[in-house]
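PROTEIN DATA CARD
Card holder: ABC transporter ATP-binding protein
Chain length: 307
Origin: Thermalbibacter longus
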Amino acid sequence: MDSLPIQVNGLTRFYGKTRGVDDLAFTVERGEIFGFLGPNGAGKTTTIRLLMGLIQPTRGSARIFGLDCWRDATAVKSHVGYVPGDARLYEAMTGAQFLDFLAGFRPGIDPARRRMLVERFDVDLSRTIKHLSKGNRQKLALVQAFMHDPPLLILDEPSSGLDPLMQRELLTFLREEQARGKTIFLSSHLLYEVEQVADRVGIIRDGRLVAVATIEELKRQRTRRMEVAFSMPIDLAQLASVDGVQVLQVREGGRWVELGVSDGLPVLLRRLSELPVVDLVYAPPDLDSVFMGYYQRQEAITGERAR
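Structure generated from the sequence above:
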């Protein structure tokens, strides 16, 4: 398998006249964790269903290890561990029966790996699935995706329903799998989750990719927020006149100011050193602010086009 784990070119899917995704183009490199972010209805699940060969593209192509995701769907699935966003399990089976059933489609599963996964994710295999909580069903879905040790994992909201400790365990496991050479496509609405493990991120909105970059590259493009408290009201023009600095909020009669800083930090710090500062918070950029920045920017563009 010398080809890229995922290669998407011009991928488009419409449901009648309704947009699913439009002209997607990206690649996922071998051994990376690629985060896939977007609001509800943006096209994340449609993209994943196209990658898994569950629906046919209107035009364009998606390939996994060089195999066409639609024409070679059966072969593609042999290389992928998949967790759907809304896992539908066979409720009349116990967890053990469910894993045995799926193992019948994948000869050669290592029993030791299956036992390790069951213990690691604390899965109760004795109970009937219909009696399992959402979190326990999700853990069973994780085990079935990982147990055949595939080279590529495609995970749609994999931590859904998990408690915080198990969410942390899942992220640790994903990093370990990456260290073993696995490639991971991770769709999630939990931005901090993606930020902890992803090498690169794709942001999708209204069915189109608006950004594909490393998390650090995305953060460098965003405005950072600074909160400054003063012992007395100040002349805000002293701060607003610095290139790359915006005054976002003012409270307490001008004694508390929130700034947006995209450039000019050395000049700003010199200016603040001349003012009666009593407290200052300058938090690092996070993926949440990055995502919201792209989301709001696209809303503004859409609004301008509508005029």
